[in-house]
Amino acid sequence: MTKPGNELLFLALGGSDEIGMNVNLYGCQGKWVMVDLGLTFGSADYPGTELVLPDLEFIEDRADDLLGIVLTHGHEDHIGAVPYLAADLGVPLYATPFTAQLIRGKLEEQGIADEVDLRIIPMEGELDLAPFHFRFMPLAHSIPEMSALVIDTPYGKIFHTGDWKLDEQPVIGKPSTAAQLKAVGDEGILALVCDSTNAFNNEDSGSEGSVKADLLKAVNAARGRV
């Protein structure tokens, strides 16, 4: 696995079989692309540790073959490691406008905004990083501009969801419809790389809209504090 051959490889450097720290690599024809660069938060398993960063040694050793980093959305477990690790990788970052703004704020806090090449992809936009082609598809989630990725390669299509949920009444944004998602499947998908907390819970996760009334009640009760 030093250099991908005429094949399609998937390698998770974080986020697989765990909550947080999502970092995914796809390899094809000598090149790699990264999807998301997140962190996770400390727990009782790591006393005194607030943040845990992924180990990128594998791709740092092959940085010359890395084409770019594509970000699905702005939650910490998907972009949180960007200000700590992206500059060292030295490749462009690609994100939709809202996600890019969150990333830019992090880079400015670290004083490295001029060192990282951050490029904005419009919602439902496309991106060529040959031999990969990315198509952004909006999905419902608890943050604006969550975008799944349809990744075209010479060896098949990957549907990389990022985080998602089923929400018929999202507060912000317009997610892809069931018909649009079915159309992706009808194109022929080699593999679904699916990321969703509580996906194995059989109960309805509910709509983000249901939080609004109680949130307003709590804020209204906290005069001068919020």
Task: Describe what you observe in this structure.
This protein is an alpha/beta fold. It has one domain (8-220): 4-Layer Sandwich (Metallo-beta-lactamase, Chain A), CATH 3.60.15.10. Helix content is 22%, strand content 26%. The chain contains six helices and 13 strands. The chain has helices at residues 57-60, 76-79, 82-89, 97-110, 178-187, 212-220; strands at 8-14, 23-28, 31-35, 40-41, 51-52, 66-70, 93-95, 118-120, 126-129, 132-138, 147-153, 156-160, 191-193. The strands form three sheets. The chain has a six-stranded mixed β-sheet with strand order 1-2-3-6-7-8. Strands 9-10-11-12-13 form a five-stranded mixed β-sheet, with no helix packed on it. A two-stranded antiparallel ribbon has the order 4-5. Strand 11 and strand 12 (156-160) form a beta hairpin. The longest helix has 14 residues, at 97-110. The mean pLDDT is 91.
The global form is globular
In CATH, the topology is named Metallo-beta-lactamase, Chain A
| Proper CATH architecture | 4-Layer Sandwich
Summed up, the domain count is 1
For the secondary structure, the number of strands is 13
Arrangement of strands in the largest sheet: 1-2-3-6-7-8
Give the uncertain stretches in residue-range form: none
Number of helices: 6
